[in-house]
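Worked example

This section walks through a single chain of length 223. The input is the sequence exactly as stored; nothing has been trimmed or padded.
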Amino acid sequence: MENKASRRLALTATMVKEQLSFTRVPEVNAEGKIVKFAPNTDQKRYVVFDSHRDAPVGFGVAVNKTGMSYILQRRIGARVLKATLGNCRDITLAKAREDAKVALASMQASGKTPAQARQIDKDEIRVSLMTVEACFALYRRHLIERARPAKDSSLGGWNTPRSGLAGLRWIYWVCLSVTWSTNSGSWMRLTKSPRASAIWPRGPSGRMPQPRRLISQPSPPQN
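Given that input, the structure is written out below as tokens.
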């Protein structure tokens, strides 16, 4: 028998809609068939991975106390990426399998889950709408709140109005080495953004230029 936390079997629509339940756990034999259901005595979440030929490896159903969701869990490089594809009440099994294939292709190409990729797109849009003043304020706050806060002498430069910014692609030159705070409170680096890389080429060391060095540089030529 497989362990209780996860098991593999060829899922069917009937299994998903009628048989899987948080109150009971399917016990699966070596052939991937359900032999019986046992009470979920410890009341823990469990996952049933789909062994059907139409399902990508890592696709399955997560059974929680509050409901069931289609998931995709795959190792991409050195990381294990986990994506939630949708609620089992809202998506058919066949549709979820197709969605899992699309999600897997995206994860393999980007190294990120679909949710992470969407968040990056949202953050880039938010940054693109920022004013120069707001971008300066964001970076100054980062300098103050980081683990080793900047000294007053360093902060002084960010309190002084700058001239000649009209010709700069300011959205990225300030944000190249600044971290952007997402709604969840976590931090992401915009320096790895393809859009940022396209605007400002990396130096010999492979790093983006620092913001202060870009103050006097004109905007790169438009393609």
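What to look for: Helices lie at 13-19, 93-110, 114-128, 132-145, 152-159, 170-175, 194-199.
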